[in-house]
Amino acid sequence: MTFMVVDFMKFTKLLSQQEVFDKDTFKSDDKMGHAHLNLQPLVSASRLKQFVQVSSGETTLRMVVPDSDNCLARESSICCINGEVVQSVWLRLCAVESGEIELKVKLINPSR
């Protein structure tokens, strides 16, 4: 998943809502659950990257723990990898008995 945020100051709370479906060949796909992720820590880490001027290699900018603002299944890291801000997450699916989805969320700089 890749997002572009033009004006960081407009976002006080930014959520990504994901719906997960299975893939059926001969019938309609079934909804398996949903999950949400608060993207504000990613935006904050991007601001931090600009402040500390990280541009090459891989640097961990922030760790995010599971809480009520997200569906994180475990702790998540937000890193700067060769100038790009990337969050690796495992999200627990809601409204189902069990299930998790792995995502890499990248925030790109609109001036590139």
From TrEMBL:
Keywords: Calcium, GTPase activation, Lipid-binding, Membrane, Metal-binding. GO terms for cellular component: membrane. InterPro entries: C2_domain_sf (IPR035892), CAR1-11 (IPR044562). It comes from the Eukaryota. Transmembrane segments: none annotated. GO terms for molecular function: GTPase activator activity; lipid binding; metal ion binding. Its main location: membrane. The keyword Lyase does not apply. It is found in: Membrane. This is Uncharacterized protein. It comes from Rubroshorea leprosula.
